[in-house]
Amino acid sequence: MRIRLGWFDERLSERIAAIAAGRLAPAVARDAATIMVVRPAPDRPADRSADGSADSEVEVLMLRRPAAMAFAPGAYVFPGGSVDAADSDPEIGWSGPDPAEFGERLGCSAADARALVCAAVRETFEESGVLLAGGPDGSPAVPDPSLDEDRAALAAGSRSFGELLSRRGLVLHAGLLTPWARWITPEAEPRRFDARFFAAQLPPGQRAVGHQAEADRTAWVRPRAAIDAARAGSMTLLPPTMTTLNEFASLGGVAKILGRPRTIMPIMPRLVAENGEAWLLIPDEADYPL
């Protein structure tokens, strides 16, 4: 799949050429993680098939990036972000599959997999208020107004995620996360990420509230509706987001998404310059829907 980009400058052209010729080494991709939080979509008459049965569908939590952001302003994204050094803290409480199992699925070491899962849960809580953690016995975290204070302290950097969990007697519930995909930023980009995608269901009793610095809108979006809006030009979606939503739309309900075995292969699009235009080349295996 070839996508013509709406922007192009001489510096990008020179960078693409220098990397292709071996004169410039690509920037190192930084580890990052994101979570597609899903919930069953409310049934509506339009969701029913011809025989009157309800068609399974989900809603996915999405955040719109503020217009002032340098990267992808106005795009709808899933909560997530870069892995921090503190995400490797061995004192962060953990419940669920061994990190080595995640590592086998994600193509990394057990230590890196643990940090990726911690980063995914931390960033999702910080950006949306959804906390994929709970008691050591497997009980979910109980929604509490004071969690807003912890969330603000986490965003301000005055409290670590490990400290937040420890003081509340909580552990990260890794079993709630289903490894989904791995996307790597094109080599020609100056800022690159090696992002692992996870899917998880919204825990009972919790609600999503976006962080103003990270999002100017928080929305529960049906995958098919989001894809239609992107095709119509009324919603901006990045290729990994669009591809994931298309996969969700084809699967249907929450159980089918979270229970589907996944073979995760790294997907890295390429940037090329041709005749004064920039193109993004997406590998065919990504099954990009446009």
Short characterization:
With 290 residues, the protein is an alpha+beta fold.
List its salient traits.
3-stranded antiparallel β-sheet; single chain; alpha+beta; 290 residues; 8-stranded mixed β-sheet; 8 helices; Nucleoside Triphosphate Pyrophosphohydrolase
Describe this structure in words.
The chain has a single domain (28-44, 54-262), classed as Nucleoside Triphosphate Pyrophosphohydrolase, CATH 3.90.79.10. 29% of the residues lie in helices and 23% in strands. The protein has helices at residues 10-20, 99-106, 110-128, 147-156, 161-168, 223-232, 239-251, 254-258; strands at 2-4, 30-40, 58-64, 76-77, 80-82, 94-95, 133-134, 171-173, 178-184, 193-201, 217-221, 266-267, 270-274, 277-281. Strands 2, 3, 4, 5, 9, 10, 11 and 12 form an 8-stranded mixed sheet that branches.
